[in-house]
Amino acid sequence: MSNLPQPRKLNNGREIPELGLGFWMTPESKSSDIAYNALKVGYRHFDSAQWYMNEKGVAKGILRWLKEDPKNNKRKDVFLTTKIKEPNQGYENTKRSLKESLEKIKGLGYFDLVLIHSPQTNKATRLETWKALQEAVEEGTVKSIGVSNYAVVHIQEILKWEGMTIKPVINQVEINPWLTRQEIVNFCHNNDIEVEAYSPLTRGKKLNDPTIVKIAKKYGKEPAQILIRWSLQKGFIVLPKTTHTERLQSNIDVFDFTISDEDIASMTHDDEYQVFCSWDPTTYRG
């Protein structure tokens, strides 16, 4: 068993590390050091967004690592994501804002993945955004494209659209043992779309849950590691985040054990719907 995240194959043949580092609410001033230190302990997957205002900082940390050892540290081994925020959606806006995002990561050359951040616009705008992203893949500035916070109805818009030439590779949504989103997960997996779980640590709200604490003690792990491992064993690509350098190591130390099926079942609450983020755009219909 490898002690580092393994690659997961996407529906376009490209690969993505199964565990990444989220950068939501990470200040630009801290993001460079966090990205650099994360690379030093084994992370190769970074999740930024236009809304986060830290694309430049994350890129700066990656560039520092690349320049440190050009012989061994290669751009192709790092997976970088950004997301198109709602005000930047639509065909022309997406093309313009993506150009601005690419300028912020100058030196890295391309994004490995670009997602539509949420469906909170309208059908015409969402499909125009998808058209612009497809063109970015054709131009080579983006390698893969997908969506975030999309419900089944929103994904179907793309899949049924006559203008679709590239299928989404990923849907990134908030998922944890109290928010399992079975309908979305089943639909994505049935359509060969990977599911990425953000806020897998429930924003810290469930780290003292008695069942989680008990299972953590059983495996000699921390509650956060148990929650991350749950996502991995459920088949999700998982995106824990931290602004504390010392926690980078523990969040990636989840590949030397396996939680039993019985314990996974005792952690999983399919009948609950606990959203720990301040929004749930999957419920948006417009």
TrEMBL record:
The active site is at residue 52. Keywords: Oxidoreductase. Transmembrane segments: none annotated. GO terms for molecular function: oxidoreductase activity, acting on the CH-OH group of donors, NAD or NADP as acceptor. The record marks 83 as: Lowers pKa of active site Tyr. Pfam families: Aldo_ket_red. Substrate binds at residue 117. This is NADP-dependent oxidoreductase domain-containing protein. SUPFAM superfamilies: NAD(P)-linked oxidoreductase. Residues 19-268 form the NADP-dependent oxidoreductase domain. It comes from the Eukaryota. Belongs to the aldo/keto reductase family.
